[in-house]
């Protein structure tokens, strides 16, 4: 007796064999002491509980609480809700210095951005500043990311502005529009917090990376086009966001609506902002240049307009921004009625986009600093801050990529940098908001245009094209949906194509024809390994997916088509026909009743062709279900093998005997 090493691609399996003799590279009188194992039966309740645990609690969040006293469990629970209690114990002066510098840097960037983003959402400028005061404070004590900078962002602001104005006119009914914005923010927060508490964060994964790249790029183009109103000084501008409507509105007012003074101001400062961004990219040590450039632009342009009184010559200005911090807005939120339903619908959409952006940003910087980010904890933090924000005159806030990048490069150590930024915004609201009266709208448009350009990630789009053409279709579908129709249609296209890809992969799984690598007992896909050879009288097919009702009939038909094609080739070359069809089931992670039924039909179809069905290496879940359905009794227990190599070595002598 000797030991023979067999590899089928899953792992090396050592088989004891008797009387090994070789004929044409194959082994006769083969007998293995190992058979496919049947796992111990589990009752339904235990199996269901395990499935729920793996789905919702894959990270085993209760592990730190095991065997801990009640006081320790209480402390761990508080630290889960308020991470500041954990990292705050190790906070020191060195970290504080880094956070102060980072906080002051992102504050100089966020103040002019907030005023501009509020206009994107069709809100007064002060509400943008409000949204960078309260939400960052809440996130600082509840968030688990050290690098995310919180506040309004361009994409969510545009999305809110578009969806809200479809329900309420922001010019003729400003109060109701504002109430609906707070209502949508409240329900956005509730949605985010609920997803976090119920540990349903995996739902946002349905927006694929490719779809997000396309959506963000399309949104960036749309946002930039919307800024042409302020950049060119146009007073009457379309409410539609698609490129055709915007360009009609722009060129329709070229002779009577454009203001050359406004264009001059916008062009000069846009060039300055882009040059500052170029310097920051060229030399990483000068990251602070593009960070403070927007604030410098606001100060200089405001002084220019104030001194020259350019507003008298048609240059549109921000006008008065009320002084004072966030007033309560609890009484303005619709908790019932038709507006509550509208706010809920808009809030859910805004919540998902805001979550996707924030968690993507958080994970990016967490990977760069080598620490773990708890996605569900992030959702709870983001949801809580938006709930509180909705009650303090804020609209939806989330993580900003541009500010987070500046925060990271400025040397932030913890989320205290958000607190510093928040305090600077508070002082701005209390002391200097009247100074923004003569700030030209053109400079805000220039700031937004320079900020959203980075959202157009053409390098990522090109990589998607090279890697996966279907992903590229999803990317371009989202992009063109946003640019040529609307933001919500682009989002719908992105989700639809992402789901379509999943459905296509589920309903049409890959199958492969396997061949033997000469001189080995390894069997591989013959397309990938052209040197692999077919085994006479045997056809080996691998199914690369779980087999469910959605694809069971396709899998059966595809296997039969492999057989039909192979038999036609053998007949043309006057070679012996197929006697055994081996189905390699290593990649088949699960099977349902429809899948079992499909295998029964496959077995009967093969019998009519005088071909025997053989299974190789079914997994524990699959073999358990096959035994429950008594399929091995129909097939024959001796037709289920541990490896493809074992099946081939057992079937080959029989195939030769039948010739």
TrEMBL record:
It is a multi-pass membrane protein. Residues 528-651 form the STAS domain. The lineage of its organism: Eukaryota, Viridiplantae, Streptophyta, Embryophyta, Tracheophyta. GO terms for molecular function: secondary active sulfate transmembrane transporter activity; transmembrane transporter activity. It is found in: Membrane. GO terms for biological process: transmembrane transport. Keywords: Membrane, Transmembrane, Transmembrane helix, Transport. One of its GO terms (cellular component) is plasma membrane. Pfam families: STAS, Sulfate_transp. This is STAS domain-containing protein. The chain crosses the membrane at residues 148-165, 177-198, 210-228, 258-279, 286-305, 344-367, 379-398, 418-436, 443-465, 477-500. InterPro entries: S04_transporter_CS, SLC26A/SulP_dom, SLC26A/SulP_fam, STAS_dom, STAS_dom_sf.
